[in-house]
User: Which sequence fits this backbone?
């Protein structure tokens, strides 16, 4: 399963970093970073929009926390992966509580999920974890400009922890924890598509 | 790995033991060393404030955003110089050496991006003196962890204050990359990459106080100093 970073700006960002890597960063890369912005939402931040965005984020946190809880319960993962599951699973539970608490009675219901062998097979687990964590970072980043500032301040405390998780599982897997100068962002529609593609959501 | 991985959570620049002389020394009651440290810290702090003095506003950004960008640029100068020196000193081995190449290139790209965005309003590069920590793998990694955790907290403190949505989008996309770096350096240092469920922000005065306490900024930037960093220690 490929990590989700399929926003249209990614190719140019990769080129930019490639150039930066070749030349030790001594290129006029600022234009490339600023040129790789996500499309900004047309509607201004509002509490109602926060609710919509937080419910998308809540869906992510439901999936992540259930994924790690199942991996832990089934007990098939060993060594570094086992340690990762324990620590990260506890974090995702706290994220879930925080987001659900912020939404109160506007919180969506927990979806029905099935993870198949992704919670027991080490290779499948690593691929799924990288995908979920990278998607999570891109989802939070993609909504930063759409959130009211107080909600943004809270989301910012979560997104960097998701980024740490993403880097951690990538390091365990021997993949670059951070190859790009900027992280990609995803729109709400792209996040939903990425989550559908995992096959974890049951109808 | 590591059942042995420590769950250390409170690592900060104050824990970085440069010449045995950061926070340990400020606690020291023996006259000379304490006053010498405080004098150096004051000079460092004053130099840094000079670096961060509000420059003429660029045409594209509000004065407040320019100020925030120059603050971020200064932190990126610090990180880029640190990794570049570590790469050139060639004292690191194995995975740490490879990580330094990748992370250093990214931090230099951040510098270039901010300088480009700020144009003539960009602050000059300060002169750094890392006091030998790039020449020792353990000291290097301790310092890298502290720098990266600090950068995450600093960006988190500023992102909601940016007026421009375009700059906010860039800031958050750099913020999460710094968090990836923090986790990476922590992994290499064999401490937990993600110590808490929530990362807390730090205010600008808190960040500047921590940076000043390291004495890594030897002088504020006056004229551009490109090229080879100073090797010391």
Assistant:
């Amino acid at each position: 399963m490929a990590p989700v970073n399929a926003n249209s700006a990614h190719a140019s960002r990769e080129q930019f970093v490639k150039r930066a890597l070749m030349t030790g960063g001594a290129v006029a890369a600022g234009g490339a970073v600023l040129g790789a912005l996500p499309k900004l939402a047309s509607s201004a931040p509002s509490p109602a929009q926060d609710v919509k965005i937080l419910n998308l984020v809540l869906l992510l946190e439901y999936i992540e926390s259930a994924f790690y809880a199942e991996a832990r319960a089934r007990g098939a993962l060993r060594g570094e992966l086992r340690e990762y599951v324990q620590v990260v699973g506890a974090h995702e539970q706290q994220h879930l509580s925080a987001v659900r608490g912020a939404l109160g009675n506007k919180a969506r219901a927990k979806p029905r999920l099935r993870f198949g062998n992704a919670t027991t097979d080490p290779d499948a687990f690593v691929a799924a974890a990288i995908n979920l964590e990278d998607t999570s970072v891109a989802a939070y980043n993609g909504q930063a400009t759409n959130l009211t500032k107080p909600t943004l301040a809270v989301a910012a405390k979560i997104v960097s922890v998701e980024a740490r998780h993403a880097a951690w599982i990538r390091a365990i897997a021997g993949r670059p924890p951070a190859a790009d100068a900027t992280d990609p962002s995803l729109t709400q529609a792209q996040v939903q598509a990425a989550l559908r593609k995992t096959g974890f959501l049951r109808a | 790995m590591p059942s042995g991985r420590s769950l250390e959570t409170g690592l900060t620049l104050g824990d970085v033991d440069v010449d045995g002389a950061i926070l340990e020394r400020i606690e020291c009651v023996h006259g000379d060393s304490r006053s010498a440290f405080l004098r150096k810290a004051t000079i460092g702090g004053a130099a840094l404030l000079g670096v961060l003095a509000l420059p003429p506003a660029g045409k594209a950004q509000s004065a407040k955003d320019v100020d925030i960008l120059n603050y971020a640029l200064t932190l990126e100068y610090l990180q880029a110089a640190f990794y570049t020196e570590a790469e050139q000193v060639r004292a690191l081995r194995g995975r740490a050496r490879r990580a330094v190449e990748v992370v250093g290139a990214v931090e230099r790209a951040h510098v270039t991006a901010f300088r480009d965005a700020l144009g003539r309003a960009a602050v000059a590069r300060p002169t750094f003196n890392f006091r030998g920590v790039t020449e020792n793998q353990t000291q290097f990694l301790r310092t890298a962890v502290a720098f990266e955790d600090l950068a995450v907290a600093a960006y988190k403190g500023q992102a909601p204050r940016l007026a421009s949505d375009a700059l906010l989008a860039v800031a958050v996309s750099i913020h999460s990359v710094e968090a990836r770096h923090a986790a990476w350096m922590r992994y290499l240092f064999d401490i937990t990459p993600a110590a808490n469920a929530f990362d807390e922000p730090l205010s600008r005065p808190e960040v500047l106080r921590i940076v000043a306490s390291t004495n890594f900024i030897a002088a504020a930037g006056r004229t551009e100093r490109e090229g080879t960093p100073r090797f010391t220690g």
